[in-house]
Amino acid sequence: MYFKEKKSWMIPPEPVAENQIKETHESEFVIIGAGYAGVFCARKLMEAGAKVTLLEKALRENMKNNIMGGSEYAVFNSKFGFAKGIPEYDPIDFMLEYQKRTANRCNPDLIRLIAYNSGECFDWFIEPLSQELKDHIKVFNFPGPDLFRGDTNGYKSFAGTMFFDKPPACGDQRKSEWTVNAALVWTMNMMESKGVNIRYGMSGEYLEKNKEGRVTGVIAQNFDNEYFRFNAGKGVVLSAGDFGGNKEMFFDLLDEFSELTHNGEKYKDTIYFSPRDGKGIRMGLWAGGYLEPGPRGGMYIPQAGRAGLMFYAPFLKMNVKGKRYSNEGIAGGMMSAIRGTRQPEGFISTVWDSNWQEALRYQSYDHGCTYLGPMVNQGMQKAVEEKEQRKAKRAKGIEEAPAEEYKNGPKGMGWDLFAADTLEELADLLGYKGEYKKNFLASIERYNELCRKGRDEDYAKDPQHMQEIKDAPYFGTRMMKDAGHPDVTEVGLMVDENEQVLDERGDPIPGLFASGQCAGEVFPLQYCPPMSGSGIGTCTTLGYALGKYLATL
Fold first, then answer.
1. Model confidence over 500-526: pLDDT tens digits?
2. What is the 3-state secondary structure (H, E, C) of 116-185?
3. What ranges do the domains of the chain cover?
4. Which of 368, 281, 306, 334 is nearest to 9 (CA)?
5. pLDDT (0 to 100) of residue 301
6. Is the confidence at residue 338, as pLDDT, over 90?
7. Helices 36-47 and 179-193: crossing angle, nearest 10°?
8. Quick one: the chain helix, strand, coil %, rounded to 5?
9. Does domain 8-13+22-297+485-550 fall into CATH 3.90.930.60?
10. Is 490:528 a contact under the CB 8 Å cutoff?
11. Beta strands in 165-309, from DSSP E residues, in sequence order
């Protein structure tokens, strides 16, 4: 990480005067951040009999609605999954896939930890959960697309993502995204009952070192601005999440997103930031840790900023000029969609025909997979009903002019869906005019020609995803192009095979470890894993693996 001048987030705070420190606490291990990695690490250490202190910035009463979202949890080779019919995969295939998708920029030591610990970690995680929670764990989109052959354009994906589906124990049933967090809170309560010292409302401020350079503990602060010293006899773990809410850090480090958005000045209405401020990563830097080098990425929803009704199904896409621009199914939705951010300003359209259900049978298991749930079926039905209503009006001599701009689609989703009996009508509804309408129709004609050949001579799309657009009704969505929104930054500290933080020379810093989103080189470039739910899946497994290692010290 090089900057000619130091940025403000790189400068550590002044040490707190001794007379300001209210209390000192002693533990073998201090874990900063009760997210997925931190909780899993703490529980593993607790079971080994270690004395653990877990610091969490959020107050106890806010944990059930914590900032950690996600209902999908990627699990590789678990007994729970095998019992549900998921096949056993070769860990070598999993590790190789990560290396391919990251252009060999991931840390293979961390990916190996995930490959060989993921299933074991999940089975261990759910073992003590209440049966009420277990009964609501489903396998996401499985058996899934029945004609998927295992890879798309040479990129493999794997079944095994678990879906936590609105259990009553959640405490907040507004949406399923809270439910993995509900299981996490359940685990924290169990840990606390067994002696883990969980300090809520306690934010780490900076790490302390002894004369030999070993990290010995952390100075933390509560909401009353009182300071506390937490000493760690064996090690400190940074697991405080990403820096999605630290705008200066965000735009300084994520160059692709920064350039696409003009440092946040462009697409202001579609960018939102997480509350996480990167404090754990900054504390590691202040203690001598080294940040992973660029290019640096994040978990964006790219393409046009939103996935639309068909999410990332590999259907034909065209830009505002009516031109096809990429392989729509190269490696799931995240990777194939990134080309949309580089298109001319305006909208991006996705087009398919009445054979859409057949086309979806070839999807992969990763983020390219459109779940055939109520939203998709209802959306398609509504589009057909609106088509018939327009036809009835035309029969009465009533013509409806399509809107010039679509900035807010159904229920504010940011996309619009249309059905039409002809491609010419669909072009009009989507807003293509003049030369751009001609381009639109020509692009479909060319695409159909390539489908009939079974060879995408233009963009090398996998033949299994090349279905002609030939049977009415025809469908199309349009979404205003932007750069997406950063759910999570995917940048962290350089660590070794034991998740020990490394300095600029590549040497481990004694007593300091980083896991979860604080550990780097898991998703360099951008988030594009071979399993949906890998954000949670990697954090939990890395925390678990770190707990196993630390228990041996």
1. 999 999 999 999 999 999 999 999 988
2. HHHHHHHHHHHCCCCHHHHCCEEECCCCCCCCCCCEECCEECCCCEEEECCCHHHCCCCCHHHHHHHHHH
3. 8-13+22-297+485-550, 316-480
4. 281
5. 63
6. no
7. 30
8. 35, 20, 45
9. no
10. no
11. 197-200, 202-209, 215-222, 227-238, 297-300
d(Cα 420, Cα 428) in Å, to the nearest integer?
A: 10
Q: Please determine whether the domains at 8-13+22-297+485-550 and 316-480 fall in the same fold group of CATH.
A: no
| pLDDT the model gives residue 414 | 55
Residue with tokens 């900035």: 407
Joined tokens for residue 445: 């004609």
Question: Which CATH number fits the domain 316-480, given the four candidates 3.30.70.20, 3.90.700.10, 3.40.630.30, 3.40.50.1980?
Answer: 3.90.700.10
Give tens-digit pLDDT for 81-103: 999 999 999 999 999 999 999 99
Confidence of residue 228 (pLDDT cuts 50, 70, 90): very high
3-state secondary structure 507-548: CEEEEEEECHHHECCCCCCCCCCCCCCHHHHHHHHHHHHHHH
Beta-strand pair 155-156/215-222? unpaired
